[in-house]
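step: validate -> pass
step: tokenize input -> pass
step: predict -> running
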Amino acid sequence: MIKGLKICGVSDPKTLNYILNHNHLPSLTMIGFITNYERSQRFVKYEKLKNLTQVKKKKVKFTSVLVNPSDETLEKIKNLNFDYYQLYDVSPERTKKIKLRYKKKIITAITVSSKVDVMRYKDYSDISDIILFDSKGYHKSRSFDHGFLDEVPDELNKMIAGNIQIDDIPSFKNKGFIIDLSGALEDKNGKKDINKIDKLLNLITKV
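step: predict -> pass
step: emit ->
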């Protein structure tokens, strides 16, 4: 059974409402919003982000995706309706301070190109609620060798990203991962595709 699903890079009300009202959401469903990484085509400016996150999210968890966020950014978003902060390029010490100050659950993103990178999870396992193993591509939806994760303990609450495609979902059955998709759910113009999201949600609840 797939442990959960995160749909990342949502940036418009139509897509958001479609997901929130779908009939086949996994018991753990998360939606990610690119909060401060302006190089990403999925980046959402503050006022739009504020409006998007004011909706009734039901049981869905909202995640703010942050790359080495400044204190100014964290203060600006602190009252928005987020359950998780997903942090890239943040030290263990600062991660702990952010968690204590803002009372959010933390997803620590470990970017992977080798087994050595994977082992960095040990520095965060006592601080973070979820460890995300992602590629080095950030917004470019690149892949990495998922075999590098074979030595990660089953008891770790872990998420996996990095150019995962909808048809890859069955291969993650019984592996204990929360699956994180973004680029695989977009059309050729980089916009979220409702039909692809529907295919994903109908599939993942059957795996």
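step: describe -> The chain has six helices and eight strands.
step: cleanup -> pass
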